[in-house]
Specification:
Strand content of chain B: over 45%
Largest sheet of chain A: 6 strands, mixed
Number of helices of chain A: 0
Largest interface: A-B, 28 and 25 residues
Shape of chain B: globular
Oligomer: heterodimer
Low-confidence stretches of chain A: none
Shape of chain A: globular
Structural class of chain A: mainly beta
Order of helices and strands of chain A: EEEEEEEEEEE
Helix content of chain B: under 10%
Largest sheet of chain B: 7 strands, mixed
Strand content of chain A: over 45%
Low-confidence stretches of chain B: none
Chain lengths: 113, 115
Amino acid sequence: QKEVEQDPGPLSVPEGAIVSLNCTYSNSAFQYFMWYRQYSRKGPELLMYTYSSGNKEDGRFTAQVDKSSKYISLFIRDSQPSDSATYLCAMVLAQGGSEKLVFGKGTKLTVNP
Amino acid sequence: ETGVTQTPRHLVMGMTNKKSLKCEQHLGHNAMYWYKQSAKKPLELMFVYSLEERVENNSVPSRFSPECPNSSHLFLHLHTLQPEDSALYLCASSQDITGVVGEQFFGPGTRLTVL
C-alpha cells in the first residue's frame, strides 16, 4: 500500500463549479497536511497547510482533514480558469531530527470558461 | 532574481554525456533538496542538504551526484544516464529541515530528456 494515494485525474469542470480534491494516507504518524499547486512549466507552490482534524478556510479554498479516516480534501468554490493546475497533496513526517514531505501523485484540474 | 532558480530549463543528453544541473536560492534558507518528478508518479525526494551537509540520500543511483558548495547553491551532476531518468528535476529550499511545517519553495525545474 502506498503511503499517500491521490487520483491523478484529469478532472475537468466548468467555471463556477465546486471542486473537490482528495487524498488518503496510511501512515498515522503524519503530522501536517499540505496542498501544493503546480502550474504548467512551474514548480509546486504551497497553497494551504493544516495540522489538525477539521476545516481551514482561505478565500475560495477550504482544506479538510479527517485523521480518523486518514483522509484529506481540498475544496475550491467558484472555480476559475486560473485555478487550472495540478494539485498535489503532501504530508509531513518528522523522523530522525528532520521533516520529510511525502507527496501524492497530483490531480490535474482544468476549469473551462 | 528572487526565490529559487534553476538552469538549464531544458536539457537533452545522450547516455554517455556528462552534464550538471544548477540550482540557486535567494531566500537565505539553510536546507536544499533535489526531487524527481515523473509522469503519473509522486514527487520523489532524491537528496537533502542542511547547511551544505548531505543529510539524506534516498537510494539514488550513483549516476546522480549532488554537490552543495554553499547554502545558496546546489548542483546535480549527471553521467551515463538511462532513458528512464528522463523527468522533471526540481530543486527546493526551506528555512531548515525541521520546525517550519515543511514549507519548501520550489524552482521551476529542469526538464531532462535522455536519448
